[in-house]
């Protein structure tokens, strides 16, 4: 009996070992597969997150573009404001049209050697005593109602109020003025053309940073008749100079400039092609010369070799 029990115990231990070995093998085989599946799932999640981030960025960019357009539609440009005016003072006059989100002052006359006027010390008040502002309203209707303040007198000067997105530059009602002194002001131009009719705005062209005048500008009237009266003043003296007055052809001048640019670009392309062709011709000529010289040297060597052979034969 003892022998039978010992044999049975040995068989049971062997079967248990086989079971453990089998389970370990299964874990090694199928456990690795499970780990691979988990890694694949993690990678897919990571890729999906990256894709979602890219989509979120695109959505955010689109939202920003839409918000910027909406903001531009609600903004109003206000020009010819005295330099002493503060945002709180300007807010008091424009709150009658609606709630204001923000006010930004721009177009300061900057001192030499400074690109941005960050403080009051950087502003050159001697060159220009006016500034421009951008007012952002909460709705588009409020901004449209604020345009009623255009060409009205505020803070002792006639202000210009216009949409920030649209240049209200109708050429039928505007004139171009030239040969003006560089230190002229909008109010003096307005007084000069006062008898011609009601003026909507005066815009003098200035340099970007220094804000010095360029001697040219535009005057827009409310009626077409006043343009005819204003052009009749061409050649008269304005602040010691003969003023030049013509009908505004801003679009035509831009078209002409674009045509000139295109012509220059074409001419530059042609010149480049000519230079390339000349360079290639010279390179080909040099190559041909080398080939000729090489072929000539070969012929000479062959002739000399033939002569030597003939001489040897004769000597024999």
UniProtKB/TrEMBL annotation:
Top-level taxonomic group: Eukaryota
Subcellular location: Nucleus, Nucleolus
SMART domains associated with the record: RRM
Bias type Basic and acidic residues, positions: 33-46
Stored PROSITE patterns: RRM
Molecular function in Gene Ontology: translation initiation factor activity
Family to which this protein belongs: Belongs to the RRM RBM34 family.
Name by which UniProt lists this protein: Eukaryotic translation initiation factor 4b/4h
Source species: Anaeramoeba flamelloides
Lineage: Eukaryota, Metamonada, Anaeramoebidae, Anaeramoeba
């Amino acid at each position: 009996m003892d022998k039978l029990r010992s044999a049975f115990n040995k068989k049971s231990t062997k079967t248990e070992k086989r079971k453990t070995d089998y389970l370990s093998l299964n874990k090694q085989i199928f456990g690795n597969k499970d780990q691979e599946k988990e890694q694949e799932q993690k990678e897919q999640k990571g890729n999906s997150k990256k894709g979602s981030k890219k989509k979120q960025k695109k959505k955010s960019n689109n939202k920003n573009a839409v918000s910027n357009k909406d903001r531009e539609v609600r903004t109003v440009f206000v020009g010819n404001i005295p330099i002493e005016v503060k945002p709180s003072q300007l807010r008091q006059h424009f709150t009658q049209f609606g709630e204001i989100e923000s006010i930004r002052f721009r177009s300061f006359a900057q001192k030499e050697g400074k690109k941005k006027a960050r403080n009051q010390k950087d502003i050159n008040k001697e060159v220009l005593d006016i500034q421009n502002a951008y007012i952002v309203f909460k709705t588009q209707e409020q901004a449209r109602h604020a345009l009623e303040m255009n060409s009205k007198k505020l803070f002792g000067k006639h202000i210009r109020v216009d949409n920030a997105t649209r240049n209200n530059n109708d050429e039928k009602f505007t004139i171009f003025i030239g040969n003006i002194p560089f230190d002229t002001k909008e109010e003096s131009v307005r007084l000069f053309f006062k008898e011609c009719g009601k003026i909507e705005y005066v815009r003098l062209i200035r340099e970007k940073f220094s804000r010095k005048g360029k001697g040219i500008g535009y005057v827009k009237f409310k009626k077409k008749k006043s343009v005819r009266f204003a052009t009749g003043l061409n050649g008269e003296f304005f602040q010691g100079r003969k003023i030049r007055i013509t009908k505004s052809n801003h679009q035509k001048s831009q078209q002409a400039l674009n045509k000139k640019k295109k012509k220059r670009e074409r001419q530059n392309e042609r010149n480049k092609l000519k230079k390339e062709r000349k360079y290639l011709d010279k390179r080909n000529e040099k190559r041909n010369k080398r080939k000729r010289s090489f072929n000539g040297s070969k012929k000479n060597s062959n002739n000399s070799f033939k002569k030597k052979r003939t001489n040897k034969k004769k000597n024999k």
